[in-house]
Design a protein that fits this description.
The structure holds 2 protein chains of 2 kinds. By secondary structure, chain A is of the alpha+beta class. Chain A has helices spanning 3-21, 26-38, 40-60, 71-78, 88-112, 114-122, 124-127, 137-142, 155-160, 245-248; strands at residues 131-133, 165-170, 173-177, 191-197, 203-212, 218-227, 234-240, 253-255, 262-264. In chain A, helix 1 crosses helix 2, helix 1 packs parallel to helix 3 and helix 2 (26-38) packs across helix 3. Classes of the chains: A alpha+beta, B mainly alpha.
Chain lengths: 265, 194
């Protein structure tokens, strides 16, 4: 066989299956027919391809045995889920359950903080104490701190309405946030305070006050309020950022209630 | 369903549009049109009637859920075939995995049994008639069987197969020729042993 014939065979063989299946037409059909007349090897291959292609063609028309439609299974899977219908009885049951749950929660809360509630209602003065820092400009200048003032829109409320606010009902210790502050005079600029409750120790709360001086500088001062858990007595310890005793005295912190409070430097 | 079925010449596109709107009846008609075709394809690929049922079922469920993503670039049957092909491949992999796991136990008992389970195609083929072309097809590697079944049985064009397999028509033609040649060799070998 010549080299050119071999190349021609290589191009013809891939077409033999389709030739035997009768799928070829036009130029390809003529090309293959002409080649097969000359090439015995390709004729043999064509016969082999023809046998297999014939088997495939015969099998193509055979039905698949035991075919069963799967639609019933598919329909179940794709069917839209049934809509939830309003059931008055079920709704009533849910509503009553929620009501019972709500009442239980409220009851527990009342049991949890009974004393506070009584005191708040009957003797507000004993609890609604405030800390006031009366600071002159000169005094404030001595305890300035280069921290930006955090005075925002809430300072007015804090300034004018001393209040006790429960922030977290954790365990049996009532935690109160903050203490409003500061009489605003020409000498006492706007002051805002913050309390960090420290229930784990004797220390009751730490109050940090900060504000802006009339000349635009910022100041910050702090005090710590202690409370005897048995007697309820509180004492207030003041500190300032400079740390010296002389300067600490410049910050006067007083408590309006309870009566037995003690002011310490 | 009856209304749609009664309308002659309801095209696949119309049915697909209705399926997109959640029309189960339209989908039912699509299912009845192509179920047998897909079933035969799955059967030729898996060699098991039960597995084919599962594959076809999963194909249509997947298709229904994803019909909104069908862009209409190809025909609906090509798209269904693609889903079915992927499921067949997954099924073949899981079957082979199971067979391998079983073989770990079987290898201590009977080498021959283990050999059969390592090659599930052979064990499936042994249960069938020896002179069936389907037996010979099952002896082919899955990728060659897939091509032959798609071209010869499902009568997809090389372009359609190329789209389905994300490849070029030229590549499909080359691989199709190899698959045919391989099938021919297997057939000759089988006939020689008979």
């Amino acid at each position: 066989m010549k080299m050119s014939d071999k190349k021609q065979c290589q191009s013809i063989v891939p077409l033999l299956w389709d030739y035997e299946s009768g799928r070829l037409n036009g130029a390809e059909l003529q090309k293959v027919t002409a080649h097969l007349q000359e090439c015995a090897s390709c004729r043999e291959q064509a016969a082999q391809f023809g046998t297999v292609a014939g088997m495939v063609a015969e099998d193509r028309n055979q039905p698949v045995p035991d075919f069963q439609s799967t639609w019933s299974h598919i329909e179940k899977s794709i069917a839209p889920s049934p809509r939830l219908h309003f059931r008055p009885r079920l709704a009533a049951l849910w509503a009553s359950s929620l009501l019972v749950l709500l009442l239980a929660v409220l009851g527990l809360q009342t049991m949890y903080f009974p004393q506070r509630k009584t005191e708040m209602s009957n003797a507000p003065d004993s609890r609604r104490w405030s800390i006031e820092a009366n600071i002159t400009k000169e005094q404030l200048d001595t305890i300035t701190k280069p921290r930006p003032a955090k005075i925002d829109g809430t300072h007015k409320t804090i300034r004018n309405t001393p209040q006790i606010k429960r922030i977290r009902p954790r365990r049996s210790i009532p935690l109160y946030s903050l203490v409003a502050k500061c009489n605003k005079t020409e000498e006492t600029p706007v002051v805002k305070s913050n309390v960090t409750p420290e229930p784990e120790s004797e220390r009751y709360a730490r109050v940090v006050a900060w504000g802006t001086n009339p000349d635009g500088t910022q100041y910050q001062s702090a005090c710590t309020v202690y409370e005897d858990p048995e007697t309820g007595e509180r004492r207030v310890e003041t500190t300032d950022r400079s740390g010296s005793e002389a300067e600490s005295s410049l910050l006067m912190v007083s408590m309006t209630a309870p009566q037995n409070s003690e002011v310490m430097r | 369903m009856d209304v749609i079925t009664a309308i002659p010449g309801t095209t696949d596109e119309e049915l697909v549009n209705r399926c997109r709107c959640g029309d189960v009846d339209a989908f039912s008609l699509l299912h009845s049109r192509y179920e047998q075709k897909l079933f035969r394809y799955a059967y030729l690929m898996s060699g098991s009637r039960e597995d084919s049922c599962d594959i076809v079922q999963d194909t249509f469920i997947k298709a229904y859920k994803a019909i909104g993503r069908f862009r209409g670039d190809s025909s609906i049957i090509t798209w269904l075939m693609r889903i079915c092909t992927n499921l067949c491949r997954t099924h073949a992999r899981s079957k082979m995995f199971k067979a391998l796991k079983l073989s770990e136990i079987a290898v201590f008992r009977d080498f021959k049994m283990a050999e059969e389970q390592l090659n599930p195609v052979i064990s499936v083929e042994k249960r069938l008639e020896a002179d069936s072309i389907r037996d010979l097809l099952l002896k082919l590697p899955a990728h060659q069987r897939e091509l032959l079944v798609l071209y010869e049985y499902e009568e997809l064009s090389t372009d359609e197969i190329a789209r389905l397999q994300n490849t070029s028509p030229g590549s499909v033609r080359v691989r199709l020729f190899r698959a045919r040649q391989h099938l021919k060799e297997i057939a000759l070998k089988t006939l020689a042993h008979m």
